[in-house]
Amino acid sequence: MQLSSKNARREFSLLSAQYSLNPKKHLRILMAKPGLDGHDRGALVVSRALRDAGFEVIYLGLYGTIDQIIEVAVQEDVDIIGLSILSGTHLKVADRLIKEIKKRRNWKVRTAIGGIIPDEDIPKLLKLGVDAVVPTGTPISKVAEVLTTALTERKSSASGRKKRAVKDSEVG
Fold it and tell me: Which one of 24, 53, 58, 67 has the minimum C-beta count within 10 Å?
């Protein structure tokens, strides 16, 4: 994966322009590593690629609690919360995150979970209320497409939430 390639930056810029309903407002994404999972290379790679493509990325870093992540997301008025989870706790973390978001009835934020996600857990995450699931190995351009599509569907449809996922069979 080459983050510095002109094609990748151009593709992200086109996606950002295509899906943003307000061209002066960049899509705001909070990236975080919840719990004790100390491996953040993938989250940093995705964060940098999205930033280089024109997204506004707030990287919270390692060892965040759900409460801290929610607080920063509210303060920063993000469009999407992206969590990178490699520890196998994705179902528990997603359940807690969605419950905390639902407590704030008028808050319309999207959620994405990335990392080591077995195919059989993807439907479970989507059923919990996660908007996008992106397993390890997903091409960066596909990550941007899934995130921007999830945001567009929220803005264009007041009713119902359409879920997006990339399965291992789609990963290059």
Answer: 24
Task: Report helix angle 66-76 to 90-103, nearest 10.
Answer: 50
| Domain map (residue ranges) of the chain | 6-170
* Per-residue pLDDT tens over the stretch 131-143: 999 998 888 888 8
Q: φ, ψ for residue 33 (rounded to 5)?
A: -120, 100
Q: Which CATH architecture has domain 6-170?
A: 3-Layer(aba) Sandwich (3.40)
Q: Give the up-direction half-sphere exposure of residue 8: CA atoms within 13 A in the CB hemisphere.
A: 17
Structure tokens given for 22: 């307000």
Contacts from 89-92 at CB under 8 Å and sequence distance 24+?
89/34, 89/35, 89/37, 90/115, 90/116, 90/117, 90/121, 90/125, 91/121, 91/124, 91/125, 91/128
Residues 6+ apart with CB under 8 A from 100: 66, 67, 70
Cα separation, 164 vs 134, whole angstroms:
9
In tens, the pLDDT along 59-108 reads 998 888 999 999 999 999 999 999 999 989 999 999 999 999 999 877 88
